[in-house]
User: Fold this.
Amino acid sequence: MIEVVHVTKTYGKGQNLFTALDDVSFTIPEGKTAAIMGKSGSGKSTLLHLLGGLDHATSGNIIVNGQDLTKLKRKAMDRFRAQELGFVFQSFFVEAVQTCYQNVALPLEINEVPYKQRRPLVRRALKEVDLEEKINVKAGNLSGGQKQRLALARAIVNKPGLLLADEPTGNLDSATGELIIQLLFKLQRQQGSALIIVTHDADLAARCDMQINIKDGRIQNTAQPQLRWHKKTVIPAVQA
Ligand code: ADP
Ligand code: MG
Assistant:
């Protein structure tokens, strides 16, 4: 379960103080998918960075599967991120000069998974995204769609409790983007992870269990679509 409780994030000081997130609260039940929507500059990436432990909240609490991220020191945060979080960005963020193996093995390394256990885990993750045969190819030589599949393999290799995706199809053509989304949902279901996707795509948002709309750093509303195949879930009350 993901609990975001009265989270505020400000940047800068004095006259330059800017409130990017303003008293944001919501809850995402375990294994559920949520879309975060909102115009450019509304605070979506800021929220995802806080959830991913890439930046600190100014106030409030962010509780991921029982662990309050705002209470973790640097090292504990790095460890938590490597164990519990998978991140996919719009800009792929793979290490171009490293091989696919090296890219996917990185979270295992951080997690201190013994060397000999890494290769089978990397192979399995690459197989999930249909990149097994590229294991020794440098990431820089992959196409955009392949790079994003590689990023997905890296995001899931540790079987994280929470997958975060920031406009994961933003730099892809629509057919490739759809493939990435289908993979993302498939892996999310297989692992029972929660998934949070930042997206501009209303159709994609409608495929998630819940939608969170942000405007100027504040939650506008959260909604649940008329679900066709999901069981109906009760979304806990949300602070507006
Ligand atoms: P979105 O992802 O919804 O487009 P962001 O979360 O990236 O929005 O940004 C929200 C607001 O916070 C924007 O106005 C942006 O300029 C501002 N912002 C983001 N990061 C910083 C930063 N490091 N320093 C100052 N302002 C920032
Ligand atoms: Mg953004």
In short: Residues 226-234 have pLDDT under 50 and may be disordered. Strands lie at 2-11, 18-28, 33-37, 59-64, 67-68, 85-88, 162-166, 194-198, 210-215, 218-223. Residues 174-191 form the longest helix (18 residues).
